[in-house]
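Agenda item 2: dihydroflavine-adenine dinucleotide complex prediction
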Amino acid sequence: MMPDRCDVVVIGAGAAGMMAAARAGQRGRATVLLDHAPEPGRKILISGGGRCNFTHLDASAERFLSENRHFARSALAGYTPRDFLALVERHRIAWHEKTPGQLFCDNSARDIVAMLQAECDAAGVACHWPVSVSVVTVEHGRGTRFRVVTDRGAMACASVVLATGGLAIPKLGATDFALRTARQFGLGIVETAPALVPLTDANADASLAGVSLSARASIGKIGFADGLVFTHRGLSGPAILQISSYWRQDDIMLDLLPGRDAFAALREARSARPRAQAASVLHGLVPARLAAKLAGELALPDVTAGNLPDRVLRVIAQRLSAFVYRPGGTEGYAKAEVMRGGIDTRDLDQKTLEARNVPGLFCVGEAVDVTGWLGGYNFQWAWASGHAAGMAA
Ligand code: FDA
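Presented output:
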C-alpha cells in the first residue's frame, strides 16, 4: 500500500532517482520512490553492453554540454566518481577500467541496480512499481506542498524529485513527464534533441555497412578521435556518437587517418608498391571495401602507383584527412543513447537542483539540460545530481 502522505516523492527509479531516494531516506526523510516500469533501472541494465560503464574518473564539467557550461560543476564536485566507486567497492562489486578512466562492472549491470536497491531498502525508502503518475499539483497544507496523483491513489508530500529521465529509447519507457511537469511549474525548457546518436545521410552506400576504422570527427574546434562504423543509413561508432551531440545541421570534418600525415603515408605506399595499380596506394591505409569505394569515387588514372604524381596524391590525402561530411539527420530517439537539452538550468539551484521559484521541486538526471560525453559521464551526472537533490529534498 502506498502511503497517502510522506516527506519526499521521487518520480522515476532510474539512476538519478534511485540515488536521490536513497540519500533522502538516509537523512530520515519518509521517502517514496515510484516508477511506471515493472522494474527499476532498466537503462542501467542495458548500459555499457550489459556491463554498465558506471562512471568516468575525469568527470570535469568540460565533458558535459549545457547552455550553462558551469552549472554542473557544483553537483559534480559534491559527489565525485571516486565517491561512487567507493560505494561500488563497499558493495563488493568487481569492476575494471576499460579505456583510461572509463569504469565498467566485471560481471553485470544488474550489480549496480541491486546496489542502488539495497541502498534504498537500507534507508527505508518505500518503492512502488509499476505506478503510473498522472500529475503533480500544488497543495499547501501542514508540512505538504504537493499532491502526486497516481493510478494507485494520491500522495501529499513536502518535496517532489522529478527523475523520469529524457526521451531516448521510448520502448524502454522514456516519457516527457519531467519536461511536461517542469513546464507546468513555469520552468524553462532548452530545446531537446537526440544525442549520442548515429547519423544518417541520403547518399549512404549500404555496401559499406559494417566497415569500421579509427577516425576523427570534428565540428569547428571540438573533435573526437575514436571508432567510426559505416551503417546502412549513414555513420555510427563512438567518434560519430560523440560529435552527434554537437551536430546542428553543420558540416562534419572527417579525418580517416587521425594523427597521421596522409600525404606522407600515400607517398610511402607509392614507393612500397610502385608497380601495383594506382588504387593500391590506399591499401593498408583504410579497410579494403572503403579503399575500393574511394578509388572509384576519385576516378584514379589508369597508371601504376609509381606513376601517380604528387598532385593526385594530394587530392587523395585531402579526401582521407579532411572529408566534409554532411549528414541529413540522425537515427532519432529510438537509437539515441541520451537526450540533449531539457529543463533549463537557469531555473535550478546548482547546489541542490531545486527549482528556484518552486520550493520543494527538484529536477535531476537526464531530464536536466546537462548532457555528458560518451564514456560514463551521463551516469556520473545522474549520481551527482541525484545525490545533491537527495541531500536537500
Ligand atoms: P533514466 O532513464 O535512467 O530513468 C528514468 C526512470 O523514470 C525510468 O526508470 C523510467 O521508467 C521512469 N519514468 C519515465 N517516465 C515516467 C513516468 N511518466 N512515470 C513514472 N516513471 C517514469 N550512460 C553512461 O554513463 N554509461 C553507459 O554505459 C551508458 N550506456 C547507455 C546505453 C544505452 C543503450 C542507453 C539508452 C543509454 C546509456 N547511457 C549510459 C545513458 C544513461 O543510461 C542515462 O543517461 C541515465 O540512465 C539517465 O539517468 P536518469 O535517472 O536521469 O534517467
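Discussion summary: The chain is about 30% helix and 25% strand.
Owner for follow-up: CH.
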